[in-house]
Amino acid sequence: MNTIWVRTAWLLLAIAGVVFAPLASTYGMRWGLAAVVVCLLLMLAWHLVHLHLLMRWLEGPLDAPLPRGRGAWEIALAKLHRRTRVRQGQQQALAETLERFLRAFQALPDGVIAFDRHQHISWINERAETHFALSAQSDRGQALTNLIRHPGFVSYLDAGRFSEPLIYRGGRVDGLTLMLQIIPYAENQNLLVSRDISQIERIETMRSDFIANVSHELKTPLTVVAGFSEMLADDFEAYSASEIKHYLALICEQNARMQRLIEDLLTLSALESGGAAASEEALPLAPMLESIVDEARALSAGKHEIALKIETPSVLLCCANELRSAFSNLAGNAVRYTPPGGRINLAWRVVDGLGEFSVADTGIGIAAQHLPRLTERFYRVDRSRSRETGGTGLGLAIVKHVLTRHHATLEIESEPGRGSRFIARFPARCLVKA
Ligand code: ADP
């Protein structure tokens, strides 16, 4: 049986036995009843005091401790205390779950904005703050279309057809392209999810530019080859032996050009898809640099003064084939972009623990605005000069890739009309012996 009822029954029995019975038998029934009434009034007062304490607690702050009680109140308040503790525990668990959810939303790589049917924002995660230049603190409660006023977005929101995403450009953050989608998730509640697709878009543009460039590069030699071949096939006898020789030489030249282009494209593609580390071997640099100088001299055909200076004989941990291709590209460029009579100096040294290969020429030089873009595929300062000298426009892109794979950097110093210096710097860990 409930302890409160048992205690009350015992108290009433005690009043009857200890107060009423002796007084009624000694002073008569009236005194006995009067004493019982006094006892009951005292009980009532005691309950009222506890009730008052309970009311004061209920009206007080939420974290105020429960009042202490005695007798039946002690039991009642203890149960209330237990209930409060259980409720607090549940609330805490709920708050923690909510906190975890909010943290998960914050950690999302996408922006999320929750808004109601009046388009009032109720929550914004950090990524959405960056995407739309909003502030979760000050913009909460604002109408979404007051903050994102882009006409495309407003009509997307009004149309209510959210199965397709919206590509959003030209927002408050420059250069950002977002893919937006609205997801209704509860009655009159919606999420606006934004994903940054600027990088994907850039890659897509690069890819289509690259295809356009390759097609363009192949188109001219192919047209020349096709034109002369058709001409000769149509009426071979109509041409003299020297003319035929000349046309065949032109065909061969264009073939060689296409071959160089394909070779460079294959090298670039192998470098790009070859993962991080190039296969490494300890390569003594001197013999390789000497053979590169020989090649450069052959390319120059005596038109330039070409010198090699090895200040610190070194052994480099590298992929020999890749490094040879990068260094000979730099040396070849120096020959091709230096007018006859110019000087070209190749040098290797170790400075402050870093390996440094440099190619300096007294050639045509490069204006400062071109320098940051020189290692882009097919970027040329002077297209016709590059073609005339057999360039593919891929040489420096290959150099850059090779150096990156060796954790090395490329520095370019140049002055139009005075010459250029290309410096490849290798980290100390690439130097086996210096
Ligand atoms: P290309 O096959 O056209 O030489 P690269 O990628 O090797 O292609 O070089 C890109 C461009 O950088 C060249 O077209 C040229 O304009 C410029 N360039 C490279 N090396 C030199 C140099 N040593 N002197 C002047 N310009 C250079």
Structural overview:
This protein has 434 residues and is an alpha+beta fold. The chain has four domains: 2-101, no CATH class; 108-196, 2-Layer Sandwich (Beta-Lactamase); 204-272, Signal transduction histidine kinase, dimerisation/phosphotransfer (DHp) domain (Helix Hairpins); 281-433, Heat Shock Protein 90 (2-Layer Sandwich). 54% of the residues lie in helices and 18% in strands. The strands form three sheets. The chain has a five-stranded antiparallel β-sheet. Strands 7-9-10-12-11 form a five-stranded mixed β-sheet, covered by helices on one side. It is elongated. Bound molecules: adenosine-5'-diphosphate.
CATH level-two architecture of the largest domain = 2-Layer Sandwich
Residues in helix, %: 40-55%
What is the global morphology?
A: elongated
Number of strands: 13
| Oligomer type | single chain
CATH domain class of the largest domain: Alpha Beta
Would you kindly provide a brief summary of this structure?
The protein is of the alpha+beta class.
Keywords, please?
4 domains; 5-stranded antiparallel beta sheet; alpha+beta; 434 residues; Helix Hairpins; 13 strands; binds adenosine-5'-diphosphate; Beta-Lactamase; 13 helices
Break the fold down into its secondary structure elements and pairings.
Elements (H helix, E strand, L loop, with lengths): L2 H25 L1 H31 L12 H36 L3 E6 L4 E4 L1 H7 L3 H4 L4 H4 L3 H9 L6 E3 L9 E9 L2 E8 L1 H37 L6 H33 L7 E4 H16 L4 E6 L4 E4 L1 H17 L6 E9 L2 E8 L21 H6 L6 H11 L3 E7 L3 E8 L4 E3 L1
Helix pairs in contact: 1-2, 8-9, 9-13, 10-11, 11-13
The structure holds adenosine-5'-diphosphate (ADP).
